[in-house]
User: What shape does this take?
Amino acid sequence: MILTGAQILWECLVREGVEVVFGYPGGAILPAYDAMLDYPIRHVLVRHEQGAAHMADGYARASGKVGVAIATSGPGATNLTTGIATAMLDSVPTVFITGQVPSKVLGSDAFQEIDVTGITLPITKHNALVSDVGDIARTLREAFAIARNGRPGPVLVDICKDAQQAKTDFEWPETVTLPGDRRVPSPRREDLARAAELVAGAKRPLILAGHGVLKSGASRALQAFAEKTETPVALTLLGLGGLPASHPLCLGMMGMHGEAYVNTAIQEADLLLAFGMRFDDRVTGKLATFAPRSRKVHVEIDPSEIGKNVPVDVGIVGDLRAVLEALVPEVPEARHAAWLRQIQAGREDTRARDILHQPDNGKLYAAHVIRDLWTATRGEALVVTDVGQHQMWEAQYYAHERPRSLITSGGLGTMGFALPAAIGAKLARPDAEVWVVAGDGGFQMTLCELATLRQEGLDVKIAVINNGYLGMVRQWQEFFYDKRYAATPMLSPDFVALAGAYGIPGRHVTRRSEVGPAVEEFRASREAGLIEFRVEKEDAVYPMVPAGADLHAMIRRPAPVDAAGEVRA
Amino acid sequence: MKHTLVARVLDQPGVLNRVASLFRRRAFNIDSLTVGHSETEGVSRMTIVVDTRRTPAGLVAENLRKLVPVLEVQDVTQVPTVSRELALFRVCCPAEDRAALGELVAIFRGRVVDVAPGSVIVEVTGDEQKVDGLEELLRPRGIEEMVRTGQVALVRGVHAAAVARPAEDAAGEKLA
Assistant: This one.
């Protein structure tokens, strides 16, 4: 069938199962936009291409499917880059399509020409420039395969305008052949046996579970492994939800803002089982003193991650779920009562220091907001956070029971991620109750997407945690820069009035007693809404492992002092 | 410690850029990198000598394998190989020294390939140590200009089977 390159593009997307794309038109991508009207794919018009990239990312994280964003050449493409890099660092399967100037003027600094494949080379899993209409179908087929295969990631396809306009005989490549051997290996018998041997000999084993649990659908296998061997589980930020927070073996988040008992357990363990995580510096603290007494087993789909930061005794390359399903029958049942009691003692100490357990002093803390949001949503919301203090409080106080119930930018730490990613997530899972949790700083980076939210008529609820500062940076200044608050106090608009300007209802909350009722009020509606929580301005996220410090060298929340001047905890 | 990696890559625009970009952003240290045709049409062969004091060769190889146009990577450091580098030196050489220089170069199985009134061009082929050795001896005479290609390597015939690549690699792998 003779089609234009633009038509072939949409034919391919339809065949890849794409239902929605996020984008912004412009000169070099206009042929594709013109052809789009004839295809059954929903297009979400964003207000800035960064939003399109985060929406594709949020869509992919919520659904496990490939997210797609589309933009024009030059500034359209460069605006995507923050979102592409976000997807790269968190291994999110995404395909980005950009228009490019006509092939005959490539390299001439034509209007809106920029070397997009050059710019995105280090922030994509793969990219390609297509200047011949005959290459469009195969390149897109490969792009989707690469985005999904092995460790997922973003792929960018840059298509010249003349290739979109030219015609050719369209043939859908039924199979796709990638160079080299791209199969995910099956775990080797001897590696499984060595891992099982270490598990059998461990007295103080601990599982470190990451994003890979969600990506490979390994939650059940993880739970089976943990229960059979009675091994407690610490989760990375992106692994939250990989084991239900209410599970007795679930310790919660580890790392820079992990609870003290979790990090202490890592340092005291005699066996670490790293499942689908990559020993990020926010997890390990100083490498030289990280878990020095433990043997280590690392199960990871990307062989280049094994031994990258932390030397391990056994490295197993493979799909986490397949590896765990093979490993569970090999490991002996075990009980670790003494080890669990030791961890529990630390847990009690953390509980006593917890801000939620301090007497009400009339102030509204972000932790209160998150916990009351959790209560009001029965812990069942799909929460999409931005980056900063509120992100860490969300991780600490919103107990996630299910995989893919928290979407957050971990690796790149991209402020401005939440609102657009939530729009993508809502389109992927229309039945989910989607809540944005953002700070006053990050929210202002992409708040133009409120218009997108309104135009698409999506029911996404927004909690802006406003403390009048770039809170996480302020916290670093408080701890490490002698309280010199350079460029962190921040004036914000009245977010409720702002939402009103976009036709989105809103409400201010300044007292704890109002948090639950406000959340309930907005839950009752089927349209978007925004609550601005004006919280304590100079609260800090505790505990904190200073960057590059030993994982056990945590700054703890100061023990509260009661009316008589006695330290309570 | 130096390791020699041999990468077979698709002969496509931008492949060298991808490899160079990877080495730059991961701070892998390249000693030398050569690219040329291989025995298979459409497949280029890269010989990469890496300094592995900071990053183990295995990690460098695994990172290379992640690049889509890379078909396969072998670390041939521990395998008997024939490894060669070509060097050209333009050396100051008054006419009366030509004979002596020629003798010196002959010891290294090199040749004088160009003669000018005050200089000659010397060509030598060999492994890295041999080229280093000649360079050292020529330096006091005054090297006006020199160029070294970097190492290329082939696994010796009797050992080739041990590191032979799986036959299906060249054909690629089918996905869904």
